[in-house]
Amino acid sequence: MWVKDETGNVAGSHKGRHLMGVLIHLAVMEAVEPKGLAGPRNRPGLAIASCGNAALAAAVLARAGRWPLTVFVPPGADPGTVARLRELQAAVVTCPRKEGVSGDPAYHALRRALDSGALPFTTQGPENGLAIEGGLTLGYELAADLEGDLDHLIVQVGGGALASSCVQALREAAEMGALGRLPRIHTVQTAGAHPLERAYERVRAVLPADPTPDAIRPDTISRAMAEAARRRPEFMRPWDTEPKSVATGILDDETYDWRAVVEGMLLTGGRPLVVGEDGLVGANRLAVAATGIPVDPTGSSGLAGLALMRGRGEIGDHDRVAVLFTGLER
Fold it and tell me: Is the distance from CB of 202 to CB of 235 less than 8 angstroms?
């Protein structure tokens, strides 16, 4: 087993990778078209919906780049995180849920802010594709640093940008010859909310009956994903109840980058995993004890997925597996 440790990165997670690419793009745009962004003295505000690692990374980078930032958070956001966001001069807006309104209220507030002129400083790929480009660096490092090919990569999923970035980076690495073959890419969500697993099963239902992973042709998958995207509400819809889990960082009501992630799993023969609270807590204890890495339950949830697959006999003793530890315990 290989562990890619992201806890030493900016703000303690991989999220800075996604947002640094956005920050560089903004700097370039100001240099090339200063009037287009009104210049450094009159910049539009940046906005993000998050209550954890993405928000902290956004606040650190926005402060460093001297950009005003608004962070939309749920009422249950960690008080320590909120205090740190304010120390970093971010404006924090609490967004309570409303009866009869599905989906993440913080995300809805973000959408309203973007409609009013804010710029998306967010890790949701559909809101800002540059966030995926920044995340590719993680997958490139996996391809460059590991000697030999992986059999499996297990990635925790909330909004999906991390998994989407890994899928794209590893596909590019394989196309360029840096990898002999793609690993099977599996995803992990909690029993408290697993919209990606639900979407995957619905896409799988429109594919040929009972195919083996190697028998699904890429063009068949591509057509199925295009049809799913056209009928998005039938495949990816907000979770029906308020998500709750010890792995708070992957409790998104929707997997916003679901299309790329589902396609990546289907192309590689991977699968979505749903892990209960005992599995998440046990994996976190093992992660910290065995490696000394101060990772939180969200960040070690890929290990929980590995334990689940090992228990089912789906990963053998000699398989080469990688997981990502990302999210510093605070």
Answer: yes
In a shared domain, residues 57 and 182: no
Does residue 184 contact residue 153 with C-beta atoms inside 8 Å?
A: yes
pLDDT digits over 252-290, tens only? 999 999 999 999 999 999 999 999 999 999 999 999 999
The three-class DSSP label of residue 97 is: coil
CA 213, CA 160: separation in Å to the nearest integer? Answer: 22
Question: What are the two backbone dihedrals, phi and then psi, of residue 65, each rounded to the nearest 5 degrees?
Answer: -90, 0
Burial of 102 (C-beta count, 10 Å sphere; 0-12/13-18/19+): middle
**Token pair 């960690």 is at which residue?**
78
pLDDT of residue 293: 97
Q: Where in the sequence is the domain holding 77, given as residue range(s)?
A: 10-120
> What pTM value is reported for the model?
0.90
Note the pLDDT tens digit of each residue in 146-196. 878 899 999 999 999 999 999 999 999 999 999 999 999 999 999 999 999
**Position of tokens 């995926």?**
132
What SS3 state is found at 187? strand
How far is 309 from 232, CA to CA, in rounded Å? 29
Domain end call among 120, 153, 174: 120
Phi, psi of 316 (to 5 degrees): -85, 175
C-alpha span between 8 and 229 (Å, rounded): 36
Residues 179 and 278 in one domain: yes
Alpha helices in 176-324 (DSSP H): 195-205, 218-230, 232-235, 258-268, 277-291, 301-311
Distance CA 330, CA 327 (A): 9
The two tokens of residue 280 are 């998440």
Cβ neighbours of 223 (radius 10 Å): 13
Q: Does residue 209 share a domain with residue 283? A: yes
φ/ψ (deg, to 5) at 242: -65, 120
